[in-house]
């Protein structure tokens, strides 16, 4: 599992708007990467709205991007974004459809029993110019404590 001080693998393609074309995340500057086990799941759908609501607060602290990364396809992450932020948001919803990015961080777990496939652990990374400054990983992916928007905000 990736730790503070380590570089985030920058060559792993993920998808945002175009479900057919992947590209690496832009990790220049200060960014937050929020890993969630599954779009539309109750814990994830209760966690992400606070990041959306606090987006301007995070920006005021120098955060360039907030990426919500799920091991789902881009059609699902786009639909989830539309449901959670029908008026739009600066929070970026990212599909790691193959799990390659999440796996390169050492943050994949076997979610086959409930979610049908390997999924992202619930984590939050504060990255600065592509390196991990801070990381929180929930021991229980159904819980949202150390990865909540309030918990991450105080780490900035």
Strand and helix layout:
Layout lengths: L29 E7 L5 H12 L1 H6 L2 E8 L3 H11 L7 E4 L4 H5 L3 E3 L1 H4 L2 E3 L2 E6 L2 E7 L11 H5 L3
Parallel strand pairs: 1-2, 2-3
Antiparallel strand pairs: 1-6, 4-5, 6-7
Organism: Coniophora puteana (strain RWD-64-598)
GO cellular component, one term: peroxisome
GO molecular function, one term: thioredoxin peroxidase activity
Labels describing this entry:
five-stranded mixed β-sheet, globular, alpha/beta, Glutaredoxin, 156 residues, two-stranded antiparallel ribbon
Quick synopsis:
The chain is α/β, with parallel strands linked by helices. It is about 30% helix and about 25% strand.
Description of the structure:
This protein is of the alpha/beta class. The protein has one domain (28-154): Glutaredoxin. Helix content is 28%, strand content 24%. The chain is built from 6 helices and 7 strands, in the order E-H-H-E-H-E-H-E-H-E-E-E-H. The strands form 2 sheets. A 5-stranded mixed sheet has the order 3-2-1-6-7. Strands 4-5 form a two-stranded antiparallel ribbon. Helix 3 links the parallel strand 2 (63-70) and strand 3. The longest helix is centred in the N-terminal third of the chain and has 12 residues, at 42-53. The radius of gyration is 14 Å and the shape is globular. The two termini are 21 Å apart. 37% of the residues are buried. The mean pLDDT is 95.
